[in-house]
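Support reply, case 0932

Customer input (verbatim):
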Amino acid sequence: MKFGRNMPCWCGSGKKYKLCHEAFDKKIRHYEILGHEVPDHEILKTREDVEMIKRSAAINMACLDAVGEAIRVGMTTQEIDDIVYNTTTKMGGIPAPLNYENFPKSVCTSVNSQVCHGIPSDKVILKDGDIVNVDCSTILDGYFSDSSRMFLIGDVSEDRKRLVRVVKECVQKGLEASQPWGFLGDMAQAVHEHAEANGYSVVREIGGHGVGFEFHEDPWVSYVANAGEEMLIVPGMMFTIEPMVNMGRPDIYTDEDNGWEVYTEDGKPSAQWEIQIYITEDGPEVICW
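Our regenerated output:
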């Protein structure tokens, strides 16, 4: 839709378009003319939207905090799922993964060589030396939040500790590179360069995503793209930074029986941290971690 300069702005501010987002849209159009992929208005969040999403994020982070306090050797991943479900519902939220495209649980628990989408089970018992990613997503009043953390179980080997630490560093470097009027490829290059410099590989087929109004929105977020590539980053965008970094090769496969759990082909460990960020004129703001 074309907006007249004196029409109310599309963002809902109540201001005239010419006094609100006209210059912003012209700037985006300039990049589009140059051949870059640009975001639609529909995925951009206002400050009012962000405040609602932060309420969802508070529940999401409370879940991960609760898991962090309880997780231990001998715990089942089903117990982790129970903690997330109980914490989420007591705080008035809904676990976003539960029944999403037939996913049977409230959270993803990915252990060692599981890359992502691990299904909690009373048969999976955490052992001394394991590393596990707990990926939590929450809905509150129709607004979505998403983040994941790595946990070290008992006495973990130095090589696994290093993998977990480097992946967290990758996320931080990706955050620093996620600047308004840059490109998602800038962030991706910062992530994969750091991973590869430390001898690791980054999963190519699975990436991050926009989030806030829905569980998964545009844009799809790669971590193997190069600077200057992928979608233009503009204020109002919200997306996840969640690289999956493997100790060995980047190749992965999905369990044929359940259609969800993703593993490294070579059986070596994989690690992932995830944050949800909002882009402002001054830079990225971390919403959920």
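We compared this against your earlier run and they match. Two observations from our side: The two ends are 36 Å apart (CA to CA). The CA atoms of residues 58 and 288 lie 8 Å apart. Please reopen the case if you see a mismatch on your end.
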